[in-house]
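Box 3.1 A note on notation
Throughout this textbook, protein chains are presented in two layers. The first layer is the amino acid sequence; the second is a token string describing backbone geometry. Keep the layers aligned when reading.
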Amino acid sequence: MFVVFHFYPCRDSEPVRLLALQFIGRLLVGLPSEKKGSKFFNISVGKFKSLPEGHKKIRLHMQPIFSVISDRLFKFPQTDLLCATLLDVLLGGASPKQVLQKHNQSDSQRSSKYNSQFFLPQILCLIFRFLSGCMDATARIKIIGDIIDLLESNPLNIEALMENGWNTWLEASVKLDVLKNYNEKSRIQKETEIDEQNFIRNLYSLVLCHYVHSVKGGWQQLEETVNFLLTQCDQGGISYQSFLRDIYEDLIQRLIELSTEENIFVSQPCRDNMLYLLKLVDEMLISEIDHKLPVYYLKLLPASLFSFMVLFWLQIR
């Protein structure tokens, strides 16, 4: 099945490789674990739904396939055509623009061929590998922006990302120079760098907000993400500590905005997840102030963090 990736080493043969990628994508979408009606999550009650054992085995069997595809594809130069094809495979033959256009149309049309579901979410790992190796800041911003738009269009896409590509996203994002040099005062940042940082922060906060707000046990995904970033800090990446602090602020700001529409702090699963978020914020602040006096502690609290803490405790009383 992968012979076309192996025997066409020159760039002139890229159209053949990309057609092969699309063909393999169509074949993989047809496997039982990806058939329509096989849903991994129950969004209506905001609870995680365990995958049947058979589906887990099929997904495990597919992992070596994507590993081989990735190794073969990225032996060649990364091009815009490759990026477009990866998104095409992810969305079942549609572009992000087509998916979003269909999403904005009437409900009767949303069930058409081009919907906002990820047909092959495992391809996200390849997209994020492409992202980490992309040298064009504008192209990286475009990729992240498309992913954000797709996630905002359908909560199922967020959970498919977490299930199939979140670890790869974490690893890819911390390799980007804009995070390695995050908030370095000695550097004058270009506008594209600031834009890229904002897009990365938006993706993090969008996904984590969904898990805190809507998913039972969503604190676990938050914890794993925070632990990953703290590991980067321990390895000498001071900039990641500033980045984590901004992620907390973005996440809390999203939750505050949601709370203006309904009292989310007293309902499950949000309440338990929020308590864990407060614990993480408290640990961060204590670590940063090195156990200074409580008055000084409050002075260091960003406005959004302090407002969130007050609002949360008032609503759960």
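The longest helix spans residues 191-214. Confidence is low (pLDDT under 50) at residues 33-58, 108-116, 293-300.
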